[in-house]
Amino acid sequence: MKAQEQRHGASWIPGPIVEALLKGERAVEDNPFVVLGGNGNWPSGAVEALLRGRGYKLRSMVELAEMVRVIHKEEPDLIILARGMRGGDPLGLCRNLRGRRWLATTPIFYLCSEGRAEEASALEAGAWDAVKCPPDPELFLARVENAVQMKRKADEALRLGLIDQMTGCYNRAGLMARLEEEILHARRHKEPLACLVVALEPFPRVIETVGDPEASEAAFLAAARILRQGSRRTDILARHEEYEFAIVAPATGRAGVRKLVNRINDAFANSPVRVRAKGQASPFRPIIGITVRASWPGDEETPETLIDEASEALALARQWGSGHRIYSQVNGANAS
After folding, report:
1. Which residues share a beta bridge with 287?
2. Residues 135 and 266 in one domain
3. Sheet strands (E) in 294-333
4. CB–CB of 277/206 below 8 Å?
5. What is the CATH number of the domain that holds 81?
6. Which residue range forms the structural domain that includes residue 56?
7. pLDDT for 112-143, tens place per residue?
8. N or C: which end of the chain has fewer CB within 10 A?
9. H-state helical runs in the chain
């Protein structure tokens, strides 16, 4: 076998993926079930080898109709799509699957080998992630494992009625439950805690000018995915109001929350997703209200207190028209 390539069936596997397979890294626990659709060659064949090498239970198929049957029958932990499937358009399948409420918590990856336009099409179709090919093996496997863990946590929260079925994020009840847990943890361990409320522009104008419920829902879903990508693995993302999100950021003080805001802004700025308002396509622009607890001198803080403070800071940020504001316990929302 050459150092830079290997044949796996009919698939060519890039050198970095071969190296990852040869390392014999530990298999993931519980054998999560992944459904992979593609032409069996590049790039789906290489990804199949990578996942099997890590111990995932995997069904790979070329026929789109067969994939739909498997998804409905077996409810996988992760769906991966790529170009080259027979019997239909994988992007159309992605849109169809994302519209199914019972798949709200199921992550969908789309393997992209045609550049930025394909990435934009995948995200607009409802994919959680548009994976550039060839993927970095360690980064790709980490993203897969993270997506599977998020789905399993979300499924449990859904069972308890804590998940918003449209976005797959926590709903308000789930937000308050998780925020209360994080407040108790932060107080016990003397750690900081940040809470963010995020509004989006031009999303409200999309609703008002287009008046298309499906277009509005697709725009909101796209925003949820971008926020998920911009947030850290430890952050808690929730649908706060009808068109607002909230993020709970554990162990995060003022310096950390500014870095998180930069991550979120970068995620929106770098996303190829555009929304149409007043006949023009433009990117989302997040407006963020923040409150931070660096210390816990008493027991008066509640989830409602932190959400109200972040919402007050958001209202001030909206008055300024963009950016973010951090609530001050001394001066109210008049802090930057």
Report:
1. 199, 323
2. no
3. 323-326
4. yes
5. 3.40.50.2300
6. 5-156
7. 988 888 988 898 888 989 999 888 999 999 99
8. N
9. 15-22, 44-54, 64-74, 90-98, 116-124, 137-159, 172-189, 203-210, 213-230, 254-270, 303-320
d(CA 209, CA 32): 43
Do 82 and 201 share a domain, yes or no? Answer: no
The radius of gyration computed from the CA coordinates of the chain, to the nearest angstrom, equals: 21
For residue range 248-305, list pLDDT tens digits in order: 999 999 999 999 999 999 998 888 877 766 667 777 889 999 999 998 877 778 999 9
What pLDDT was estimated at residue 78? 96
Q: What is the pLDDT of residues 257-271, one digit of tens each?
A: 999 999 999 998 888
Residues 216 and 137 in one domain: no
- For residue 129, list its beta bridge partners: 109
What is the DSSP annotation of 293-307? ES---SS---HHHHH
| pLDDT for the residue 322 | 64
In percent, how much of the chain has pLDDT > 90? 43
Q: Tell me which of 156, 186, 208 is where a domain ends.
A: 156
CA 225 to each of CA 138, 165, 271, 272: distance values in angstroms, whole numbers, following the listed order: 22, 14, 10, 12
Q: In the chain, what's the furthest Cα-to-Cα distance? A: 67
CA distance 101 to 167: 9
CA atoms within 13 A on the CB side of 45: 14
Rounded to the nearest 5°, which phi and psi values hold at 206? -60, -45
Residue 148 domain-assigned (yes or no) = yes
Q: Which of 167, 191, 128 is nearest to 246 (CA)?
A: 167
DSSP conformational letter for 63:
B
For residues 223 and 79, membership in a common domain is answered with no
CB 147 within 8 Å of CB 156: no
Number of domains in the chain: 2
Q: Is residue 54 part of a domain?
A: yes
| Together in a domain, 80 and 214 | no
Q: Give residue 9's pLDDT.
A: 33
For residue 133, the surrounding DSSP H or E stretch is none
Beta strands in the chain (DSSP E): 5-8, 11-14, 33-37, 57-61, 78-82, 108-112, 129-132, 193-201, 236-241, 244-250, 275-277, 280-282, 285-293, 323-326
Residue 335 lies in a domain: no
